[in-house]
Write a structure and sequence with these properties.
Elements (H helix, E strand, L loop, with lengths): L1 E2 L10 E2 L5 E5 L6 E7 L1 H12 L15 E7 L11 E2 L29
Antiparallel strand pairs: 1-5, 2-3, 3-4, 4-5, 5-6
Length: 115
């Protein structure tokens, strides 16, 4: 993972919400993805976009800069939470966790009365 130089010209690719760009590695991105000028929020967004059915993805890295890095696809394993990407060479790790979030519960509904 390399910090993106401030004057870097990003390649043509899919734009991410935080201003980064993602390009595929291999035909149709079958070998992985390259992130250019991406924030960790960009990375989380992409993981959530691709694997939202696995559950929410949260950034707990504390990294606030922009980075250039690549994420390679790897075969799934029992230890892998279902993402199928190698992030350990970046110093990152996917961990399953729990968190408490507010939930809206509707326990009663009535048809409105005319005024």
């Amino acid at each position: 993972m390399q910090p993106t130089p401030p004057d870097a010209i990003l390649p043509v690719g899919a734009h991410l919400p935080g201003g980064g760009v993602i390009t595929g590695i291999g035909p149709g991105g079958t070998y992985g993805m390259e992130f250019h000028g991406a924030t960790m929020q960009d990375f989380v967004y992409r993981m959530l976009f691709m694997f939202g059915s696995v559950g929410p993805v949260r950034d707990r890295t504390g990294l606030t800069g922009r980075y250039d890095f690549r994420v390679l696809q790897v075969p799934a394993s029992d230890e892998d939470p279902g993402f199928g990407f190698s992030v350990s060479d970046l110093g990152l790790e996917f961990k399953r966790g729990t968190e408490y979030r507010p939930v809206l519960v509707i326990d009663h509904v009535e048809k409105p009365t005319p005024n």
